[in-house]
Amino acid sequence: MSLVNTKEMFAKAYDGGYAIGAFNVNNMEIVQGITEAAGELKSPVILQVSKGARAYANHTYLVKLVEAAIIENPEIPIALHLDHGDTFELCKSCIDGGFTSVMIDASSKPFEENIALTRKVVEYAHDHGVVVEAELGTLAGVEDEVNVEHGKESYTHPEEVEEFVSRTGCDSLAIAIGTSHGAYKFKASQCTRNAEGILVPPPLRFDVLHECIKRLPGFPIVLHGSSSVPQEFVKMVNQYGGNMPDAIGIPEDQLREAAKLAVCKINIDSDIRLAMTATIRKYFAEHPDHFDPRQYLKPARQAVKDMVAHKIVHVLGSDGKA
After folding, report:
1. What is the C-alpha separation between 322 and 319, in angstroms, rounded?
2. pTM score over 0.90
3. Annotated catalytic sites, by residue?
Protein backbone atom coordinates (compact mmCIF):
# COMPACT_ATOMS: atom_id res chain seq x y z
CA MET A 1 0.00 0.00 0.00
CA SER A 2 1.21 3.52 -0.80
CA LEU A 3 0.42 6.73 1.04
CA VAL A 4 -3.26 7.70 0.92
CA ASN A 5 -5.01 11.01 1.40
CA THR A 6 -7.61 11.45 4.10
CA LYS A 7 -10.79 11.79 2.05
CA GLU A 8 -11.87 8.13 2.27
CA MET A 9 -10.53 7.85 5.85
CA PHE A 10 -12.74 10.73 6.97
CA ALA A 11 -15.83 9.53 5.13
CA LYS A 12 -15.62 6.17 6.92
CA ALA A 13 -14.84 7.80 10.27
CA TYR A 14 -17.78 10.20 9.98
CA ASP A 15 -20.22 7.39 9.24
CA GLY A 16 -18.64 5.07 11.82
CA GLY A 17 -18.58 7.45 14.78
CA TYR A 18 -14.83 7.38 15.34
CA ALA A 19 -11.84 9.62 14.64
CA ILE A 20 -8.43 9.13 13.05
CA GLY A 21 -5.42 9.92 15.19
CA ALA A 22 -3.04 12.48 13.73
CA PHE A 23 0.25 12.00 15.55
CA ASN A 24 3.21 14.34 15.10
CA VAL A 25 6.47 12.71 14.05
CA ASN A 26 10.02 13.99 14.50
CA ASN A 27 12.31 10.94 14.37
CA MET A 28 12.52 7.21 13.67
CA GLU A 29 11.46 5.98 17.10
CA ILE A 30 8.28 8.06 17.05
CA VAL A 31 7.35 6.87 13.55
CA GLN A 32 7.98 3.27 14.58
CA GLY A 33 6.03 3.50 17.83
CA ILE A 34 2.98 5.07 16.17
CA THR A 35 2.79 2.77 13.17
CA GLU A 36 3.52 -0.42 15.11
CA ALA A 37 0.58 0.36 17.39
CA ALA A 38 -1.68 1.22 14.46
CA GLY A 39 -0.58 -1.87 12.55
CA GLU A 40 -1.25 -4.25 15.41
CA LEU A 41 -4.64 -2.68 16.10
CA LYS A 42 -5.58 -2.45 12.40
CA SER A 43 -6.19 1.29 12.64
CA PRO A 44 -5.82 3.92 9.93
CA VAL A 45 -3.40 6.63 10.99
CA ILE A 46 -2.18 10.08 10.01
CA LEU A 47 1.49 10.93 10.47
CA GLN A 48 1.84 14.68 10.58
CA VAL A 49 4.89 16.85 10.24
CA SER A 50 5.15 20.40 11.49
CA LYS A 51 7.29 23.20 10.11
CA GLY A 52 9.53 22.71 13.14
CA ALA A 53 9.86 18.97 12.49
CA ARG A 54 10.95 19.64 8.91
CA ALA A 55 13.57 22.07 10.16
CA TYR A 56 14.78 19.55 12.77
CA ALA A 57 14.79 16.27 10.87
CA ASN A 58 14.81 17.36 7.19
CA HIS A 59 11.91 16.80 4.79
CA THR A 60 13.61 13.96 2.92
CA TYR A 61 14.48 11.96 6.04
CA LEU A 62 10.92 12.23 7.36
CA VAL A 63 9.35 11.17 4.07
CA LYS A 64 11.68 8.18 3.81
CA LEU A 65 10.90 7.14 7.40
CA VAL A 66 7.20 7.23 6.55
CA GLU A 67 7.82 5.21 3.38
CA ALA A 68 9.61 2.61 5.51
CA ALA A 69 6.62 2.49 7.86
CA ILE A 70 4.33 1.78 4.92
CA ILE A 71 6.51 -1.14 3.85
CA GLU A 72 6.46 -2.53 7.40
CA ASN A 73 2.70 -1.98 7.84
CA PRO A 74 1.16 -2.72 4.44
CA GLU A 75 -2.33 -3.51 5.77
CA ILE A 76 -3.20 -0.10 7.20
CA PRO A 77 -3.90 3.21 5.44
CA ILE A 78 -1.31 5.87 6.29
CA ALA A 79 -1.55 9.54 5.31
CA LEU A 80 1.30 12.06 5.49
CA HIS A 81 0.07 15.49 6.55
CA LEU A 82 1.60 18.94 6.99
CA ASP A 83 0.55 20.36 10.35
CA HIS A 84 0.11 24.13 10.64
CA GLY A 85 1.50 25.20 7.31
CA ASP A 86 1.62 28.98 7.48
CA THR A 87 2.46 29.95 3.89
CA PHE A 88 1.54 28.88 0.38
CA GLU A 89 5.22 28.18 -0.31
CA LEU A 90 5.50 25.73 2.60
CA CYS A 91 2.33 23.91 1.56
CA LYS A 92 3.53 23.77 -2.06
CA SER A 93 6.89 22.33 -0.99
CA CYS A 94 5.18 19.54 0.94
CA ILE A 95 2.73 18.82 -1.87
CA ASP A 96 5.58 18.64 -4.38
CA GLY A 97 7.57 16.56 -1.88
CA GLY A 98 5.10 13.69 -1.52
CA PHE A 99 2.68 14.71 1.23
CA THR A 100 -0.91 13.58 0.68
CA SER A 101 -2.54 16.19 2.90
CA VAL A 102 -1.63 19.71 4.00
CA MET A 103 -3.00 22.19 6.49
CA ILE A 104 -2.94 25.86 5.70
CA ASP A 105 -3.39 27.72 8.96
CA ALA A 106 -4.38 31.30 8.22
CA SER A 107 -6.64 31.46 11.27
CA SER A 108 -4.76 34.43 12.71
CA LYS A 109 -5.55 36.51 9.63
CA PRO A 110 -8.76 38.46 8.94
CA PHE A 111 -11.61 36.36 7.50
CA GLU A 112 -11.16 37.46 3.88
CA GLU A 113 -7.39 36.95 3.98
CA ASN A 114 -7.88 33.50 5.48
CA ILE A 115 -10.24 32.63 2.64
CA ALA A 116 -7.91 33.98 -0.06
CA LEU A 117 -4.81 32.11 1.16
CA THR A 118 -6.72 28.90 1.85
CA ARG A 119 -8.31 29.00 -1.61
CA LYS A 120 -4.89 29.44 -3.24
CA VAL A 121 -3.53 26.37 -1.42
CA VAL A 122 -6.67 24.35 -2.22
CA GLU A 123 -6.41 25.05 -5.94
CA TYR A 124 -2.78 23.93 -6.10
CA ALA A 125 -3.32 20.92 -3.83
CA HIS A 126 -6.38 19.61 -5.65
CA ASP A 127 -4.55 19.88 -8.97
CA HIS A 128 -2.01 17.44 -7.45
CA GLY A 129 -4.44 15.04 -5.79
CA VAL A 130 -3.76 16.38 -2.28
CA VAL A 131 -6.41 17.33 0.28
CA VAL A 132 -6.44 20.48 2.42
CA GLU A 133 -7.32 21.19 6.04
CA ALA A 134 -8.07 24.79 7.00
CA GLU A 135 -8.79 26.51 10.32
CA LEU A 136 -11.33 28.98 11.69
CA GLY A 137 -10.81 30.26 15.21
CA THR A 138 -7.51 30.24 17.09
CA LEU A 139 -6.25 27.96 19.86
CA ALA A 140 -4.17 29.14 22.79
CA GLY A 141 -0.90 27.47 23.76
CA VAL A 142 2.54 26.72 22.34
CA GLU A 143 3.49 24.09 19.77
CA ASP A 144 6.53 24.47 17.51
CA GLU A 145 5.87 27.62 15.45
CA VAL A 146 2.38 28.16 16.94
CA ASN A 147 2.27 30.47 19.95
CA VAL A 148 -0.99 32.08 21.01
CA GLU A 149 -1.18 33.70 24.43
CA HIS A 150 -4.00 32.64 26.73
CA GLY A 151 -6.72 35.26 26.48
CA LYS A 152 -5.95 35.91 22.81
CA GLU A 153 -7.57 32.71 21.52
CA SER A 154 -11.00 32.84 19.89
CA TYR A 155 -13.74 30.27 19.48
CA THR A 156 -14.90 29.43 15.97
CA HIS A 157 -17.99 31.41 14.92
CA PRO A 158 -20.42 28.81 13.53
CA GLU A 159 -22.17 31.41 11.38
CA GLU A 160 -18.96 31.73 9.32
CA VAL A 161 -18.27 28.07 8.57
CA GLU A 162 -20.62 27.57 5.61
CA GLU A 163 -19.29 30.56 3.70
CA PHE A 164 -15.70 29.67 4.53
CA VAL A 165 -15.94 26.06 3.34
CA SER A 166 -17.94 27.01 0.25
CA ARG A 167 -15.56 29.77 -0.85
CA THR A 168 -12.30 27.94 -0.07
CA GLY A 169 -13.17 24.39 -1.17
CA CYS A 170 -11.23 22.96 1.78
CA ASP A 171 -11.67 19.26 2.56
CA SER A 172 -11.77 19.46 6.38
CA LEU A 173 -12.02 22.23 8.94
CA ALA A 174 -10.18 22.68 12.23
CA ILE A 175 -12.34 24.51 14.74
CA ALA A 176 -11.67 26.06 18.15
CA ILE A 177 -13.95 24.76 20.90
CA GLY A 178 -11.63 24.99 23.90
CA THR A 179 -8.74 22.69 23.11
CA SER A 180 -5.24 24.16 23.35
CA HIS A 181 -1.69 23.46 22.22
CA GLY A 182 1.08 22.10 24.43
CA ALA A 183 1.23 20.49 27.88
CA TYR A 184 0.04 23.66 29.64
CA LYS A 185 -3.34 23.99 28.00
CA PHE A 186 -4.96 26.07 30.72
CA LYS A 187 -3.87 28.45 33.43
CA ALA A 188 -4.68 27.33 36.96
CA SER A 189 -7.07 30.28 37.26
CA GLN A 190 -9.18 28.82 34.44
CA CYS A 191 -9.60 25.49 36.23
CA THR A 192 -11.09 24.04 39.38
CA ARG A 193 -9.40 21.44 41.59
CA ASN A 194 -10.79 18.04 42.53
CA ALA A 195 -10.58 16.37 45.96
CA GLU A 196 -7.00 15.24 45.21
CA GLY A 197 -5.96 18.78 44.33
CA ILE A 198 -5.61 17.99 40.62
CA LEU A 199 -6.62 20.70 38.17
CA VAL A 200 -9.87 20.13 36.28
CA PRO A 201 -10.04 22.09 33.01
CA PRO A 202 -13.13 23.88 31.72
CA PRO A 203 -15.32 21.68 29.49
CA LEU A 204 -15.12 21.82 25.71
CA ARG A 205 -17.69 23.99 23.93
CA PHE A 206 -19.85 21.24 22.50
CA ASP A 207 -22.49 23.86 21.70
CA VAL A 208 -20.11 25.37 19.15
CA LEU A 209 -19.31 21.92 17.73
CA HIS A 210 -23.00 21.00 17.41
CA GLU A 211 -23.79 24.27 15.66
CA CYS A 212 -20.92 23.73 13.20
CA ILE A 213 -22.18 20.19 12.52
CA LYS A 214 -25.68 21.55 11.90
CA ARG A 215 -24.35 24.04 9.37
CA LEU A 216 -21.91 21.58 7.71
CA PRO A 217 -23.73 18.23 7.61
CA GLY A 218 -21.43 15.37 6.64
CA PHE A 219 -18.32 17.56 6.65
CA PRO A 220 -15.22 16.38 8.58
CA ILE A 221 -14.20 18.47 11.58
CA VAL A 222 -10.69 18.49 13.11
CA LEU A 223 -9.57 19.11 16.69
CA HIS A 224 -6.07 20.43 17.36
CA GLY A 225 -4.40 20.60 20.76
CA SER A 226 -6.07 17.40 21.95
CA SER A 227 -3.45 15.75 24.12
CA SER A 228 -4.71 14.76 27.57
CA VAL A 229 -1.38 15.17 29.42
CA PRO A 230 -1.65 11.99 31.55
CA GLN A 231 -0.81 12.86 35.11
CA GLU A 232 1.18 9.67 35.71
CA PHE A 233 3.74 10.88 33.15
CA VAL A 234 3.77 14.41 34.53
CA LYS A 235 4.48 12.86 37.94
CA MET A 236 7.24 10.69 36.46
CA VAL A 237 8.89 13.69 34.78
CA ASN A 238 8.83 15.63 38.04
CA GLN A 239 10.00 12.63 40.07
CA TYR A 240 13.09 12.20 37.92
CA GLY A 241 14.35 15.75 37.77
CA GLY A 242 11.81 17.54 35.63
CA ASN A 243 9.76 20.63 36.42
CA MET A 244 6.23 20.59 35.01
CA PRO A 245 3.91 22.15 37.59
CA ASP A 246 0.20 22.29 36.73
CA ALA A 247 0.57 20.69 33.29
CA ILE A 248 -2.95 19.67 32.24
CA GLY A 249 -4.74 18.49 29.11
CA ILE A 250 -8.14 17.66 27.62
CA PRO A 251 -10.14 14.92 29.39
CA GLU A 252 -10.27 11.82 27.23
CA ASP A 253 -13.99 11.24 27.72
CA GLN A 254 -14.71 14.60 26.08
CA LEU A 255 -12.51 13.71 23.11
CA ARG A 256 -14.26 10.35 22.73
CA GLU A 257 -17.61 12.14 22.69
CA ALA A 258 -16.34 14.49 19.97
CA ALA A 259 -15.09 11.51 17.95
CA LYS A 260 -18.61 10.02 17.98
CA LEU A 261 -19.87 13.18 16.31
CA ALA A 262 -18.39 14.92 13.25
CA VAL A 263 -14.80 15.10 14.52
CA CYS A 264 -12.89 12.84 12.14
CA LYS A 265 -9.31 13.86 13.01
CA ILE A 266 -7.86 14.42 16.48
CA ASN A 267 -4.31 15.79 16.78
CA ILE A 268 -2.05 14.33 19.48
CA ASP A 269 1.54 15.46 20.02
CA SER A 270 2.28 16.49 23.62
CA ASP A 271 1.21 13.11 25.05
CA ILE A 272 3.80 11.36 22.89
CA ARG A 273 6.51 13.81 23.91
CA LEU A 274 5.54 13.45 27.56
CA ALA A 275 5.56 9.63 27.54
CA MET A 276 8.88 9.55 25.73
CA THR A 277 10.60 12.12 27.93
CA ALA A 278 9.29 10.65 31.20
CA THR A 279 10.51 7.20 30.18
CA ILE A 280 13.98 8.49 29.25
CA ARG A 281 14.29 10.48 32.48
CA LYS A 282 13.41 7.40 34.51
CA TYR A 283 15.85 5.28 32.53
CA PHE A 284 18.72 7.73 33.11
CA ALA A 285 18.00 7.83 36.83
CA GLU A 286 17.97 4.03 37.08
CA HIS A 287 20.94 3.42 34.77
CA PRO A 288 23.40 6.29 35.27
CA ASP A 289 26.21 4.21 33.74
CA HIS A 290 24.48 3.70 30.38
CA PHE A 291 25.33 5.88 27.41
CA ASP A 292 24.18 3.90 24.35
CA PRO A 293 21.16 5.74 22.82
CA ARG A 294 19.66 2.39 21.84
CA GLN A 295 19.38 1.48 25.51
CA TYR A 296 17.12 4.38 26.45
CA LEU A 297 15.40 4.95 23.11
CA LYS A 298 14.07 1.38 23.02
CA PRO A 299 11.83 1.80 26.12
CA ALA A 300 11.00 5.33 24.94
CA ARG A 301 9.76 3.91 21.64
CA GLN A 302 7.67 1.36 23.55
CA ALA A 303 6.17 4.19 25.61
CA VAL A 304 5.13 5.94 22.39
CA LYS A 305 3.61 2.71 21.09
CA ASP A 306 1.69 2.12 24.32
CA MET A 307 0.39 5.69 24.34
CA VAL A 308 -0.79 5.49 20.73
CA ALA A 309 -2.44 2.11 21.32
CA HIS A 310 -4.33 3.56 24.29
CA LYS A 311 -5.52 6.52 22.21
CA ILE A 312 -6.63 4.32 19.31
CA VAL A 313 -8.75 2.08 21.52
CA HIS A 314 -10.02 4.35 24.27
CA VAL A 315 -10.18 7.82 22.69
CA LEU A 316 -10.39 7.52 18.90
CA GLY A 317 -12.28 4.25 18.55
CA SER A 318 -10.41 3.54 15.31
CA ASP A 319 -9.14 0.04 16.12
CA GLY A 320 -10.21 -2.53 13.54
CA LYS A 321 -11.19 0.20 11.05
CA ALA A 322 -8.25 -0.17 8.61
Report:
1. 8
2. yes
3. 83
